[in-house]
């Protein structure tokens, strides 16, 4: 008599279902779809209850997918000690990852725009005590840019370093797809090249500002 196969632990079953859902979601996003949780359940051939157990809302779905695809970037550690080299190292590592999952990142941008419009409307018409809908919030960008600019702590004022981080946040992120790809029709290599050039320009300007501030202090003393 053939022995029964061992029953897979529930935790393993959950992990497998989660992986299946993530894989289907990624494929749908890369095909240009913007699936709801129900649509994902149908595509992955799981029950709606199962899908909603993992992703209570579309925002939760997109946020989870983005977290999954950005894991390599979030776990990234710089090898360089100089800030300029660290920024260059980050962009060279991160952009190929983002290009690979451009569809999901664009979905996150679309959701953010939709939520802004919905929240704006609710704020304009809300009654006292009414809470607006949840927002898609991701904070890894602040953490990574703080890490790569850490060597600047001793070279720039806190205010100027913060300005550098704010400026770099427009260079390091999927928002550039809409400008460089959609408007200017640049390819991936061109996007990466120009973002690296912009980052260098930001850092060079910070150096120039620091030098100018130092010169002003000397002139005032004189």
From TrEMBL:
The keyword Lipoprotein does not apply. Residues 36-55 bind DNA. InterPro entries: Homeodomain-like_sf, HTH_TetR. It comes from the Bacteria. GO terms for molecular function: DNA binding. It comes from Budvicia aquatica. Pfam families: TetR_N (PF00440). Residues 15-73 form the HTH tetR-type domain. This is TetR/AcrR family transcriptional regulator. Transmembrane segments: none annotated. Keywords: DNA-binding.
């Amino acid at each position: 008599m053939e022995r029964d196969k061992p029953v897979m632990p529930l935790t393993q079953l959950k992990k497998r279902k989660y992986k299946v859902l993530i894989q289907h979601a990624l494929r749908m996003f890369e095909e240009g779809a913007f699936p709801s949780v129900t649509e994902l359940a149908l595509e992955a051939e799981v029950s709606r209850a199962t899908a909603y157990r993992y992703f209570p809302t579309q925002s939760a779905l997109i946020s989870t997918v983005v977290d999954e695809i950005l894991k390599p970037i979030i776990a990234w550690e710089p090898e360089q000690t100089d800030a300029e080299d660290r920024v260059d190292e980050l962009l060279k590592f991160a952009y190929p990852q983002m290009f690979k999952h451009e569809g999901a990142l664009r979905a996150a941008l679309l959701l953010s725009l939709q939520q802004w419009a919905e929240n704006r409307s609710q704020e304009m018409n809300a009654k006292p005590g009414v809470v607006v809908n949840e927002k898609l919030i991701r904070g890894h960008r602040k953490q990574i840019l703080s890490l790569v600019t850490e060597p600047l702590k001793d070279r720039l004022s806190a205010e100027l370093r913060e300005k550098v981080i704010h400026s770099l946040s427009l260079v390091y992120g999927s928002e550039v797809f809409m400008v460089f790809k959609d408007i200017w029709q640049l390819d991936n290599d061109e996007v990466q090249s120009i973002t690296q050039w912009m980052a260098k320009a930001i850092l060079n300007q910070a150096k120039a500002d620091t030098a100018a501030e130092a010169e002003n202090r000397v002139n005032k003393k004189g």
